[in-house]
Design brief:
two-stranded antiparallel sheet; Heparan sulfate 2-O-sulfotransferase 1
């Protein structure tokens, strides 16, 4: 090839380069069109599936509010933070939904935007609360926390989530954008072709590894207020902590995902019966692994840890971890290296007035 390039006249060399560039642009354009077509097809299939379910429920007869059991009226929202093992956990929900008789729905926002418009917030709240055909329901998607009480809803959904060590999450996301994962290995990623390591990015002060990119878990828990997305906001972190304690049923950590699943199964068996065993033995337990990921050096980690943004995100992570471990300590016991869920530890007595 090198010999041919030397022998080729300059004009032909230029034409060959131009032709190659045009061909590459054409291929990229065709790939983009195929991805758009695939997205449209997925949405059409989703709409068809929804219509089928609604028609099936209509044929079975209308469901009356009065006859809905508490567990049948239950809705769980998993507003999943990217790169926190969310796909691995969600696959368990999909695997169990037919057996445990509930619906799983993915909240697919345009360009994965975690902030909804005001009108979409209203639509979403109305869907979640009044869509009887989809109850009990498990909704998941990359959206920030939404306070249903603001919309006058009497019964709020149950929020759950999982978070991860901030630097580990960012490293995973950095390589995911470049190399994808083993879940959909053929899918072209936004930064595909960029071979720069995370260490090199940090050393050069690149934008994809900047401390500002760490600011994600706090705003996801903080919600839809503008201040939540103001990088480095102390108010946002305080609000995220408040929501984690007061609005979330349970928040686990990626590093202790099995324990999170075990607690959910014990507390919400209507959805998660069989989840722990499935996680331990199922083929999908660790399905999604980022490809080509290289662990950062101590120097890289130390540089990121100098940032005030890391300090805040890490403080929030440590806060969540402490709360999770507190809940776990009061729910399980360890025996021979294994954890066991405690049986019911309360009962009722001295019940008056006495029945005749």
């Amino acid at each position: 090839m090198g010999l041919l390039r030397i022998m080729m006249p300059p004009k032909l060399q230029l034409l060959a380069v131009v032709a190659f560039a045009v061909a590459m642009l054409f291929l990229e354009n065709q790939i983009q069109k195929l991805e758009e077509s695939r997205s449209k097809l997925e949405r059409a299939i989703a709409r068809h599936e929804v219509r089928e379910i609604e028609q099936r429920h209509t044929m079975d007869g209308p469901r009356q509010d009065a006859s809905l059991d508490e567990e049948e009226d239950m809705v769980i929202i998993y507003n999943r933070v990217p790169k926190t093992a969310s796909t691995s956990f969600t696959n368990i929900a999909y695997d169990l939904c037919a057996k445990n008789k509930y619906h799983v729905l993915h909240i697919n926002t345009t360009k994965n935007n975690p902030v909804m418009s005001l009108q979409d917030q209203v639509r979403f709240v109305k869907n979640i609360t009044s869509w009887k055909e989809m109850k009990p329901g498990f909704y998941h998607g990359h959206i920030s926390y939404l306070d249903f009480a603001k919309f006058g809803v009497k019964k709020k959904p149950i929020y759950i989530n999982v978070i991860r060590d901030p630097i580990e999450r960012l490293v995973s996301y950095y390589y995911f954008l470049r190399f994808g994962d083993d879940y959909r290995p053929g899918l072209r990623r936004r930064k595909q072709g960029d071979k720069k390591t995370f260490d090199e990015c940090v050393a050069e002060g690149g934008s994809d590894c900047a401390p500002e990119k760490l600011w994600l878990q706090i705003p996801f828990f903080c919600g839809h207020s503008s201040e939540c997305w103001n990088v480095g906001s102390r108010w946002a972190m305080d609000q995220a902590k408040y929501n984690l304690i007061n609005e979330y049923f349970l928040v686990g950590v990626t590093e202790e995902l099995e324990d999170f699943i075990m607690l959910l199964e014990a507390a919400l068996p209507r959805f998660f019966r069989g989840a722990t065993e499935l996680y331990r033995t199922g083929k999908k337990s660790h399905l999604r692994k980022t490809t080509e990921k290289k662990l950062p050096t101590k120097q890289t980690i130390a540089k990121l840890q100098q940032s005030d943004i890391w300090k805040m995100e890490n403080e929030f992570y440590e806060f969540a971890l402490e709360q999770f471990q507190f809940i776990r300590a009061h729910a399980v016991r360890e025996k021979d290296g294994d954890l066991y869920i405690l049986a019911q530890n309360f009962f009722y007595e001295k019940i008056y007035p006495k029945s005749n």
